[in-house]
Amino acid sequence: MQRLEPCLAACAEAEFKNRLVVAGRAALAAGAVLRDFFDRPFRVSHKGAIDLVTEADVAAETVILSALREAYPADALLAEESANQYQGAPMGRAWVVDPLDGTTNFAHHFPWFAVSIAAVEGAASRVGVIYAPLLDELFCAIEGAGAWRNGRRLKVSTAATLQESLLATGFPYAIREKSHEVLAAVAALLPEAQGLRRAGAAALDLAYVAAGRLDGFWEINLKPWDTAAGILLLAEAGGAVSTYAGTPYTPYIPELVATNGRIHQAMVERLAPFAT
Fold first, then answer.
1. Domain range 162-274, its CATH number among 3.40.630.30, 1.10.510.10, 3.30.1540.10, 3.40.190.80
2. Does the pTM exceed 0.85?
3. To 10 degrees, what angle do helices 175-189 and 264-271 make?
4. Is domain 2-153 in CATH 3.30.540.10, yes or no?
5. Among 7, 198, 247, 253, which residue's CB has the most CB atoms within a 10 Å radius?
6. 201 with 113: CB under 8 angstroms?
């Protein structure tokens, strides 16, 4: 757990520090489960036409929820596979968990996926961990204590224009119903950017904006477990998040623009016509 030490040292709140240790250990344990499944046959089921769940999702979530319940039995849980019903932000303290963000990638043995765990109070993320098992990169943040990757502080990029920016986006599971607006948004930004990537794991996209590897990211139809940890990383690294219309964002709003801050207004101007 040495990778968590700089973040822990920067935090004065014992409660948040304890939560980071619990989340970090749970993420690493779940990552080990995912690595074990990755190179061998596993079962794949459908939650929708193109919305998949594998036995690795379920096994990783079981490991995470067991650790969280043991440490914080009174906290509420919001998790993609087994506790995924919500009506807005939970009351009080809760955990928001995605045991495998990038399930479609995982099912096709495409090595871009992550574990995402956030400790929240209402709509506010207080602690966040994102772990990419095959890259062995552990991203973490505590509110007010910065964002870190494997013990190194994160800082957003300095790109000041779309022309010098590498952007990322994602496509919703409802792409067949929303293809026109999704592709129209791509058409609004692709010609102006230096490059565009669509890798398929929103949590990692947010972590990469926080790390300065990407300059901006946008997507619709997101769920709380996709973004609760990543938006804290980005805020602590100096970035900005909003809706397409430029209004304040929480993980319970399905559309997101996330940037280094410098290009935020330019992205919002181009995405505002597609706001819901």
1. 3.40.190.80
2. yes
3. 130
4. yes
5. 7
6. yes
